[in-house]
Amino acid sequence: MQSFLKLSVLFLIATVCHWAFSTLFSFGGMSVNIMLVFSVALCSVLKPEWGYSFSFLSGLFLDFFGTKLFGNNAFSFTAAACVVYFLRERFDFDGIFPQIITVFFLTCLVGILNSILLLWFTSSAMWPGGINLVSGALVGALTAPVIFWGVRRWWLGKRN
């Protein structure tokens, strides 16, 4: 029960941060996805059943408020969680560099995957633009160490 409550609080924090960053950077056209950063951070700490669930529900939550293809984010966030669990055996997510690189590339991958799925299922294109995608991925990657630290501290109770 305690794990569920901790996860619920982290979900609320992720939602508020996602809203704040999306609003703040939307004027420049950047597509900043802080929910994905929280999902990646949680997958680096949690067991797969919790990480996949959080990633799927985070993506589904964004799908409820999106105007694009429903289920698009849920699928792409779950695919990103698969990549994180694959990399978890190879990367040390305690280090800042693996956090930044992983978040940057996964944000780009999720953006591209969302555009491909939209094109595939609806025959329409909604591409945010390469510069907007990369700049949003860069903002997410630069915030990743703070989010990873906060998630690790909240979930594991570690101070480092």
Description:
The protein is mainly alpha-helical. It has one domain: Arp2/3 complex 21 kDa subunit ARPC3 (Orthogonal Bundle), CATH 1.10.1760. It has six helices and no strands. Helix 4 runs antiparallel to helix 5 (96-122) and helix 5 packs across helix 6 (130-156). The longest helix is centred in the C-terminal third of the chain and has 27 residues, at 96-122. The chain is globular.
Topology:
Elements: H1 2-26, H2 34-43, H3 48-65, H4 72-87, H5 96-122, H6 130-156
Helix pairs in contact: 1-6, 2-3, 2-4, 2-5, 2-6, 3-4, 4-5, 5-6
Keywords:
160 residues; mainly alpha; Arp2/3 complex 21 kDa subunit ARPC3; globular
Order of helices and strands: HHHHHH
How can the largest sheet be summarized? Answer: none
Estimated helix fraction: over 70%
How many β strands by DSSP? 0
Using the coordinates shown, work out and report the CATH topology. Arp2/3 complex 21 kDa subunit ARPC3
Oligomer: single chain
CATH architecture: Orthogonal Bundle
Uncertain parts = none
Shape: globular
- Give the total of domains: 1
Termini separation comes to: 26 Å
